[in-house]
């Protein structure tokens, strides 16, 4: 058994439901984070570690990608409850040793919950599952690399898939894509494919760069902030501090969300005296409790109402396509809009009036907009409204997709993408190697290829592919169909226990740990690049950094000579290469040595320069596809509880939503419960219905009567991933529609 870890897999035995909270954070929040940290790390290690979090000279929080204030303006406690939990997961004192794997067969582990697997502690030793074995057993590093290298050379490069999750440092990401492309494929799916891909696609097309256009300072200066499809109280808690600051400087905040999320209603800032004892700051001035999927009609109606307030000089100087857009929005079908959004015309008119008055508006969004069939058109419609009012490239205004993983944006900048990177020619010239030009597999295509036998090798640097991807049963079968699966990981998870014929676990250093090659760098959601220095002793002497693993694997696989061993020994050496190849990184080393790091150039933000074909920002015409559910059906969205980091389950509570001791719950509006003849507290199976005719079932969920928009339902991911059809993806971005699943609820006897 892993040292100190829970032995009992408790499941939902103690599930309790109480009324949702009306405010987020405050002292109870911090105490919860500290308690979680102390349970895993002890008191002294918790204090020493958390005080280094997000500090200059310390390490970047492995939680979300929300930026830190400039070094001089940082609090000594520049972390949140959920950052503390994320750190505790990694800096835990619990260890998984080879004896653990001798004791537990893979079939045994496959029967455990995600929570239990994660609670067993850090992986410490490279392990292999050989063909015909049901156990992982230890393997030396050199043997591991030789085994993987031989397998890679036995298949065609395009039969291999190389996944990345968004915690990988810039340096490891650059080395990884170089290795994969030198090997011969662009099969580089990443977690972005399931996350902000729709934002990237929509922004690239309309403003010529797939990244948000605001800085943290802009958020502080904004007059109006519209937060759409995002739950910052749980997923970006430090954003609440920025919203509070803006609010205190006079900003108005509008929330657009089917759920009344505590963190959007009121914030008790634990760093401020009135947050400790008082009622805190009320945040959203206007709360649009929209129906799931109603955002495109909403922004179309806002655009219609704002046409008389168009910023003509901005439009004439910087944009194209306005006439066609204005024609499309000249009229609005109010009956359809009210029905599709679940909002009243008056509510929408009030928000339009706020937008018309404001000369500094920011729209923030996250997964509530990106994981639907019409995500790309919806985000383009958000862009339309911002362009209409000239709200880009000026202080306090802009577009703000709030990223998830702490370095997911940096990984993309470093070339983790399934198409050839923009600087492919430069790399070929620099290293005299040939790089593949054909498009590789993103996540959904990778699953199809493994399912159909076109891909036979799967490797992941981080992440938990089996649990994060849609259509769980299909994904598990696809992974099992591989000849070899390879996992570079810190913690045990579902993907390790649904292996290919041969499977290897390569345990790596986390961000909190000392790395002999120096500090790494990351890029946050607002294009700021800075250093992250681990300080803790590694969880085991047998760990390698991600960069070392990639370098050694490259040497065991490739016949082309590249200076892998010098890169492995020194992050500055690989930064030197990045500086030569990736635009914006000149003088990389010098720019990340000072504490604050540097912010990458962003044409639209810095100088209203749009790198589209004609140099203009583009209005688009987006068709509204109405959604009409058959009788008795609800539109299900899958979301995060307050006690999880994606597939890592920290605990079984969702405090703000009043849930404790369990996760198999489904939130439904009281009116829908009444019309469906169902009662709060009863048990149902959730059955998803899609046009392929396959019925996907998630059994045994407790109904929770909840303030959620009528016609909608909500459940947690990853439990609900079985319901998301693999082929149900967003137009243009191919993101699984995790927030648009038509379901019926079947009572269980
Ligand atoms: N503690 C913690 N922090 C995290 C994560 C975590 O799991 N835990 N995950 C990280 C990652 S990778 C990401 S991408 C982000 C995710 O951050 P979020 O996007 O905040 O994550 P979700 O829980 O998926 O929440 C989506 C929100 O969108 C709303 N929503 C759902 N459907 C719709 C819709 O149709 N329209 C509108 N307007 N709203 C809708 C939901 O009610 C919910 O409030 O957080 C990052 N930070
Ligand atoms: N139904 C549904 N599905 C979804 C979503 C949803 O809202 N609904 N959200 C999607 C989104 S936004 C995302 S981003 C994906 C997330 O998908 P992933 O990024 O694949 O999943 P995570 O849960 O973040 O990965 C956790 C694992 O990463 C490993 N890990 C942690 N830190 C490190 C490290 O420093 N190095 C290495 N090598 N490994 C590390 C640990 O082994 C841990 O088990 O899921 C997507 N799936
Ligand atoms: Mo994400």
From TrEMBL:
Which SUPFAM superfamilies does the entry link to?
ADC-like, Formate dehydrogenase/DMSO reductase, domains 1-3
For the region Disordered, give the residue spans. Answer: 1-23
Q: Which UniProt keywords apply?
A: 4Fe-4S, Iron, Iron-sulfur, Metal-binding, Molybdenum, Oxidoreductase
Residues covered by the Molybdopterin dinucleotide-binding domain: 634-740
Keyword NAD in the entry? The reply is no
Q: Which cofactor does it need?
A: [4Fe-4S] cluster; Mo-bis(molybdopterin guanine dinucleotide)
Q: Which family does it belong to?
A: Belongs to the prokaryotic molybdopterin-containing oxidoreductase family.
Q: Which PANTHER family match?
A: PROTEIN YDEP, RESPIRATORY NITRATE REDUCTASE
What's the protein here called? Molybdopterin-dependent oxidoreductase alpha subunit
């Amino acid at each position: 058994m892993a040292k100190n870890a829970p032995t009992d897999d408790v499941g939902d035995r103690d599930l309790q439901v109480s009324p949702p909270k009306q405010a987020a954070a405050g002292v109870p929040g911090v105490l919860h984070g500290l308690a979680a940290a102390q349970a895993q790390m002890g008191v002294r290690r918790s204090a020493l570690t958390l005080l280094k979090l997000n500090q200059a000279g310390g390490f970047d929080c492995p939680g979300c990608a929300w930026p830190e204030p400039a070094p001089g303006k940082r609090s000594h406690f520049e972390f949140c409850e959920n950052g503390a939990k994320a750190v505790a997961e990694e800096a835990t004192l619990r260890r998984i040793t080879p004896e653990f794997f001798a004791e537990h067969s893979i079939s045994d582990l496959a029967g455990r919950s995600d929570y239990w697997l994660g609670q067993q502690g850090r992986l410490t030793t490279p392990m292999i599952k050989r063909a015909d074995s049901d156990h992982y057993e230890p393997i030396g590093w050199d043997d591991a690399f030789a085994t993987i290298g031989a397998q890679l050379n036995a298949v065609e490069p395009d039969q291999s898939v190389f996944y990345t999750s968004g915690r990988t440092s810039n340096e490891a990401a650059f080395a990884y894509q170089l290795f994969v492309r030198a090997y011969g494929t662009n099969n580089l799916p990443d977690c972005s494919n399931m996350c902000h891909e729709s934002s990237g696609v929509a922004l690239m097309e309309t403003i010529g760069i797939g990244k948000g256009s605001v800085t943290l300072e802009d958020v502080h200066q904004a007059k109006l902030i519209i937060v759409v499809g995002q739950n910052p109280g749980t997923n970006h808690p430090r954003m609440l501090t920025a919203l509070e600051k803006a609010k205190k400087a006079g900003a108005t905040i509008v929330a657009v969300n089917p759920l009344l999320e505590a963190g959007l209603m009121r914030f008790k800032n634990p760093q401020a005296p009135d947050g400790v004892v008082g009622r805190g700051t009320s945040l959203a001035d206007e709360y649009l409790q929209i129906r799931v999927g109603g955002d495109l009609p909403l922004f179309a109606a806002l655009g219609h109402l704002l046409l008389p307030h168009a910023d003509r000089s901005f439009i004439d100087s910087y944009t194209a396509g306005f006439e066609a857009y204005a024609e499309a929005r000249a009229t609005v079908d109010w009956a359809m809009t009210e029905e599709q959004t679940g909002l009243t015309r008056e509510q929408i008119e009030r928000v339009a009036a706020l937008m018309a008055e404001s000369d500094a508006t920011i729209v923030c969004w996250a997964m509530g907009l990106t994981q639907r069939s019409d995500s790309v058109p919806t985000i383009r419609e958000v862009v339309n409204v911002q362009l209409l009012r000239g709200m880009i490239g000026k202080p306090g205004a802009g577009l703000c997709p709030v990223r998830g993983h702490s370095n997911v944006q940096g990984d993309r900048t470093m070339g983790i993408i399934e198409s050839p990177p923009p600087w492919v020619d430069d790399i070929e010239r620099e290293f005299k190697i040939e790089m593949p030009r054909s498009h590789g597999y993103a996540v959904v295509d990778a699953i199809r290829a493994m399912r159909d036998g076109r891909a036979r090798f799967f490797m992941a640097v981080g992440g938990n592919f089996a649990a994060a991807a849609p259509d769980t049963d299909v994904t598990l079968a696809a992974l099992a169909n591989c000849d070899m699966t390879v996992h570079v990981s810190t913690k045990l998870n579902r993907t390790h226990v649904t292996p290919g014929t041969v499977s290897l676990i390569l345990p790596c250093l986390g961000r909190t740990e000392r790395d002999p090659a120096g500090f790494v760098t990351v890029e946050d959601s607002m294009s700021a690049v800075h250093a992250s220095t681990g300080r803790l002793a590694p969880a085991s002497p047998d760990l390698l950094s991600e960069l070392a693993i990639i370098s050694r694997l490259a040497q065991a696989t490739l016949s082309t000579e590249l200076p892998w061993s010098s890169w492995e020994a020194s992050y500055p050496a690989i930064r030197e290469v990045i500086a030569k190849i990736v635009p914006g990184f000149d003088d990389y080393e010098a720019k990340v040595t000072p504490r604050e790091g540097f912010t990458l150039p962003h044409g639209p933000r810095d100088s209203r320069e749009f790198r589209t074909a004609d140099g203009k920002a583009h209005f688009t015409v987006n068709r509204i596809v109405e959604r009409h559910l058959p009788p008795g059906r609800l539109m299900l969205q899958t979301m995060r509880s307050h006690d999880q980091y994606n597939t890592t389950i920290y605990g079984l509570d969702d405090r703000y939503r009043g849930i404790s001791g369990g996760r198999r719950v489904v939130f439904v509006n009281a009116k829908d419960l009444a019309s469906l003849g169902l009662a709060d507290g009863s048990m149902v199976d959730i059955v998803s219905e899609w046009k392929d005719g396959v019925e996907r079932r998630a059994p045994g969920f407790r109904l929770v009567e909840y303030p959620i928009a009528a016609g909608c339902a909500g459940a947690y991911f990853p439990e609900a991933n079985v319901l998301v059809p693999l082929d149900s993806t967003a137009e243009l971005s191919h993101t699984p529609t995790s927030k648009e699943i038509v379901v019926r609820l079947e009572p269980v006897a």
